[in-house]
Structure formats: structure tokens, C-alpha cells
Write a structure and sequence with these properties.
The protein is α/β, with parallel strands linked by helices and 580 residues long. It has helices at residues 3-18, 22-44, 46-55, 59-108, 111-115, 119-161, 163-170, 172-210, 212-217, 221-247, 249-274, 279-300, 302-320, 382-388, 412-417, 433-438, 446-455, 459-463, 482-496, 512-525, 561-567, 569-579; strands spanning 342-349, 359-366, 371-375, 397-402, 405-406, 419-422, 500-504, 530-534, 546-551, 554-559.
């Protein structure tokens, strides 16, 4: 990562997150000064200890100096504890804020943007990347303050004891900085590669958890085991490489320190023989120099932490900064439903991953208060039309109107507030039956919920559950059958009681008895409401007021069931295939 990029992300982290917590950081700074002073005091006390106690045999100092040593170590320990505790809180709160922003961004992002990335990538950013930033803020900032002050005070003590030895000792610092810079560049590359491999593994893990039944029915366990081994090996190899680079600083610093101490002892011996430094000053100096080893090593490897943190920040901010194409505009007026008429005018839409348009120049009128059905082979464009109404996607051209109000010029919240959706891909939460249904209307009463369940033919099976409406149904309703999950989804839509209803294969998972009940409930519910239905089983939409026949993204016919059997070859072929 280039220096200007690192500088940019460091400034952004400071401006957006660190600056507002300066009081806590200043407290940690003051405590770091105490740590630095205590560390230097430890080395300095060796001077009077050796001279007064061991050379002069002063009994008073034999009592005072041990007491001072205990006090100094206690002060250092307490200050270091509170400094670290303070920065842990600062780092945790910053990560909390970043994760909140990430979650908010995901929640308001348009569906197409979310679907362009695998969920594993988001999970990796939430769990891995934020950890790198937390290490930079919590550990990095504290170490910079603590180790810098400690090093300064120790070097000052070294100069106080003997300036010639001090000058000799600090010659090794530029060498340490040079090696640290080289290691930092490698660390940045290794961190990026590590984050990529963890993202890939998160993606793989998410897929095998969701596809467990498919893996078993197609007997792909052995193949997936090999994939898991390769994925885990890739993560492990990247982590090994990362940590090897990190610990590479240790032997380098050890070698440098070895040369420094060897030269120091040789040089100090000459000074002692010439009488330029006493034994007590020498040992005090030696203690200060040895204590300076830790902050030098820490500061020498600090840029590795910076590379890791800023590389993670680049990935996280890249996600947070991603432009949201479809968002709520508070300045826009709310949707007002009069008749519930929906009009598509010259609508074309193409998915980012597709070469051809999903729908092409569609002109369509959905009459308010009536049931309109969309039929056609898979890929004809039915779901695309349905997804454009609540603006899950944004059309590339054309306009959509609801009662002569352009959907992209009205409040997004008010638009979706007027729409209920039941999809063939049922989404349920790992919560109780009641809370899953109540999700559509948080202030719903017990009677409201039970009435919705009765209309959705769900009341009987709910009453047979262990805790009835309070039964927890598992992740996406794993403790329920497909038909039961679908009926809960329908009950949720019924509870919302919106004037526009979108039904995408709403009865696809129901048995014949339940389907009959739900069909009657849906038709009763949709009276005087605008309903758009997608159904592959044409028998379920015979009573629709209007049936739109689609093929390859175009409308190729429309009318009632009997009319289309006579006039539409495409519809007749679809119907005959199902009847046969």
C-alpha cells in the first residue's frame, strides 16, 4: 500500500472515529508518561543502589531504595493496566461504530448491490477486518505513546550517565527503522492476501451450511471435503506467512542488539579503565539500554500494524462508501393510493451479470383493485417486473407509476409500506411463530395475528406445535415443513394488509388441501386491492382479471384465461403441457 493511501486512511480513522475520543486518549497518554517515568526510574535507581548500598554500605539507603523500587513497579503496573483498559474501550467503541455503519449500509443498500457480492465477503469484513483496525487503534496508538515516551526517558537517562556511550547505543536505531520499513511493506501485502483467503473461506462455509441437503443428495461430501481442505489450507498458509513476516523482526532485532551490547561492553570497558564512568553509572546505563530494547522493538514493528490496519480500513471503507443507487429521499412526497393502478411505461432492465436485458421496453397496465397474473417460462422476466415495483432494482430506462405517481419520485419508505410480498423463497427468522408473523406489523394484537393465521390456513398446525405461537422455529424455519413455512409467510403478508399485494409462487409449497384454503383466502383478501401474481401452475390463476403472457423479456399476450386459450399460442402451449 502506498504512503499516500496509508496517510489518507489514517486521517480518516482519526477524523471520523478517534478525534471524538481524545479525552480518553489523553488520559492514556498521561498514564503512558507515568509508565515511561517508572521504567526510567527503575534503571536510574540502580545507580544509587550500587553506590550507596553495595559500595558505601549505607543502611538507610538499603531500606529506602527497595521501598522506592516496589513503589516504582507498582506505579508502572497500575498505570499500564489503566492505560491499556482505556485504549481497549476506545478501540472497542470505534469498532462498534464501524460495525454499526457497515450494518446500516447493508440494510439500506439496494438489492442488486448486495447480490453482487457474496455474503462471505461481508462476514469477513465484520469479523476479520475490524479486528485489524481495533489492533491498530487499541494496541498501536497506546504503544506509540507508551514506547515513544519510554524510549525518550531511557535515552535521556543514558545521556545523563554517559553521553559517549549513549551516542554509540543509538547508532543502531536507524538500522532497526530500515528493516522495519522493509518488513512493513511485506506485511501489508500478506495482510491483504490473508483477508482475501478468509473471505473465500467465509464464502465456502456459508455455502456448505446452506447447501447441506444438496451436498448429501448428490453425494458430494468427499468433493466438498477436498474443497474444505484446500480452503482451510489456503487460510492457514496465508496466516503462517503473515506471522512469519511478523516474527522476522525478532531475530533481526536480536542480532542488532547482540552487536550493540558487544560493542557497548568493549567501549564501556575502555571508559571505565580511563575513569570516565563509574561502575554504578555503568550498571544504571546498562539497565536503561536493556529496557530500551522493548520499546525500540515495538516501535520498529509498528508500521506492520499500520499496514495491516490501513489495508483493512481500505476494504471496510470501500464497502461503506459504495454508492447506494436506490435510497429513501426524505424530501420526496409520500405515496397516496387512490385506485392502486400500476403502469409500466417503456421499461427495460438488465442485470449486471447478464448480457441480455431481462425485460425490454415493457408497457403494462395493472388495474387497481384487480388480480393480474404473470405467466411464462423461467427467465421470461416475470420476477423482474415484480421486483421493480417496490424498487428492489432500478430500471435502466422507462418509468413506473402508481396512481400517476412516479415510483422513483416518491418516498421509498411510503412506497414499500403500501406493498405486501409473498415469495417462493420464504425468509423466516430464528424466532417464535408469533414474532415472525408480527414482523409485518409490530403493534399487531394477538387476535390480529390469529386471524391472519386462520386466513392463511396456518392456525391448525400452529396449535399442534409444542408452544403454539411461542414456538421457536429455527434458522429460516428449519423445524417446519415447506408448506408450513409458506403459510407463515402468507400470514405475515395478510397481517400487513397493504393495498398492493405481490405474490411470487405463493402457493408453490402447499399440498392440495392447504392450497385450496389459501387460494380462497388470497382471493378474499385481494378484493378491492391491486394484486400481481406469478404462477407456474396456471390452474391457480384461472380467476385472475387479467393474465399477462411473457416470453424472453417481452409481453406476447394478455387477457383472461379463456381468451388466451383461444388467442395465445404461447399460453395454450404452457397450459397444455401442465394439463397433460
Amino acid at each position: 500500500m502506498k504512503i499516500n493511501k496509508i496517510s489518507f486512511y489514517i486521517k480518516r480513522l482519526y477524523k471520523n472515529y478517534v478525534q471524538k475520543r481524545l479525552k480518553q486518549i489523553l488520559l492514556a497518554l498521561v498514564l503512558s508518561l507515568v509508565v515511561a517515568a517508572s521504567t526510567s526510574a527503575t534503571a536510574w535507581l540502580l545507580d544509587p543502589a550500587i553506590k550507596r548500598i553495595f559500595i558505601d554500605g549505607n543502611k538507610t539507603y538499603a531500606i529506602i531504595i527497595p521501598f522506592l523500587i516496589v513503589f516504582v513497579f507498582a506505579a508502572k503496573g497500575a498505570s499500564l493496566y489503566f492505560a491499556r483498559s482505556t485504549m481497549i474501550v476506545v478501540g472497542a467503541r470505534i469498532i462498534q461504530e464501524i460495525q454499526n455503519q457497515m450494518a446500516q449500509h447493508i440494510l439500506i443498500s439496494d438489492t442488486q448491490s448486495l447480490e453482487s457480492k457474496h455474503s462471505g465477503r461481508y462476514i469477513s469484513s465484520f469479523l476479520y477486518d475490524v479486528g485489524q483496525i481495533q489492533a491498530l487503534v487499541s494496541t498501536g496508538v497506546l504503544n506509540i505513546m507508551k514506547d515513544t515516551f519510554t524510549l525518550v526517558t531511557l535515552v535521556a537517562l543514558m545521556f545523563y550517565q554517559n553521553w559517549k556511550l549513549a551516542l554509540f547505543s543509538i547508532l543502531m536505531m536507524p538500522l532497526a527503522a530500515f528493516f522495519a520499513k522493509s518488513l512493513g511493506k511485506r506485511m501489508g501485502k500478506a495482510t491483504t492476501a490473508g483477508a482475501q483467503s478468509i473471505g473465500d473461506f467465509s464464502t465456502f462455509l456459508s455455502e456448505i451450511l446452506k447447501a447441506s441437503k444438496i451436498i448429501k443428495i448428490y453425494q458430494r461430501e468427499d468433493a466438498e471435503k477436498e474443497r474444505s481442505k484446500e480452503s482451510i489450507k489456503d487460510v492457514t498458509d496465508k496466516q503462517i506467512k503473515l506471522h512469519k513476516i511478523l516474527i522476522r523482526a525478532t531475530p533481526i532485532m536480536e542480532i542488532l542488539t547482540g552487536f550493540m551490547i558487544a560493542g557497548f561492553i568493549y567501549f564501556a570497558g575502555a571508559l571505565i579503565h580511563r575513569g570516565e564512568i563509574g561502575i554504578n553509572n555503568f550498571f544504571s546505563f546498562l539497565a536503561a539500554m536493556m529496557l530500551a530494547y522493548q520499546p525500540i522493538r515495538s516501535l520498529a514493528t509498528m508500521n506492520m500494524l499500520v499496514y495491516q490496519g490501513t489495508a483493512a480500513a481500505e476494504r471496510i471503507f470501500g464497502m461503506i462508501d459504495e454508492k447506494i443507487q436506490i435510497k429513501n429521499e426524505e424530501k420526496f412526497p409520500s405515496l397516496k393510493i387512490k385506485n392502486g393502478n400500476i403502469k409500466f411505461k417503456n421499461i427495460s432492465f438488465q442485470y449486471k451479470t447478464g448480457k441480455d436485458s431481462a425485460i425490454k421496453n415493457i408497457n403494462l397496465n395493472v388495474e387497481g383493485g384487480k388480480i393480474t397474473a404473470l405467466v411464462g417460462h423461467s427467465g421470461a422476466g416475470k420476477s423482474t417486473i415484480m421486483n421493480l415495483i417496490p424498487r428492489f432494482y432500478q430500471q435502466q430506462s422507462g418509468e413506473i407509476f402508481i396512481d400517476d405517481q412516479k415510483t422513483d419520485e416518491i418516498s421509498l419508505y411510503s412506497l414499500r409500506n403500501k406493498i405486501s410480498l409473498v415469495s417462493q423463497d420464504v425468509i423466516l427468522f430464528d424466532d417464535s411463530v408469533k414474532n415472525n408473523i408480527k414482523y409485518a406489523k409490530v403493534d399487531a394484537t394477538e387476535d390480529d395475528i390469529k386471524n391472519a393465521c386462520e386466513l392463511a390456513a396456518a392456525r391448525d398446525f400452529i396449535n399442534e406445535l409444542p408452544e403454539k405461537y411461542n414456538t421457536v422455529i429455527g434458522e429460516n424455519g428449519t423445524r417446519l415443513s415447506g408448506g408450513q413455512k409458506q403459510r407463515l409467510s402468507i400470514a405475515r403478508a395478510i397481517l400487513k394488509n397493504a393495498p398492493i399485494i405481490l405474490l411470487d409462487e405463493a402457493t408453490s409449497s402447499l399440498d392440495a388441501d392447504s392450497e385450496s384454503k389459501v387460494q380462497n383466502a388470497i382471493f378474499n383478501l385481494t378484493k378491492n386491492k391491486t394484486t400481481l401474481v406469478i404462477a407456474h401452475r396456471l390452474s391457480t390463476i384461472k380467476k385472475a382479471d387479467n393474465i399477462i403472457v411473457m416470453k424472453d423479456g417481452n409481453i406476447v399476450g394478455s387477457g383472461k384465461h379463456t381468451e388466451l386459450l383461444e388467442n395465445s399460442k404461447e399460453y395454450k402451449n404452457l397450459y397444455n403441457k401442465q394439463v397433460i
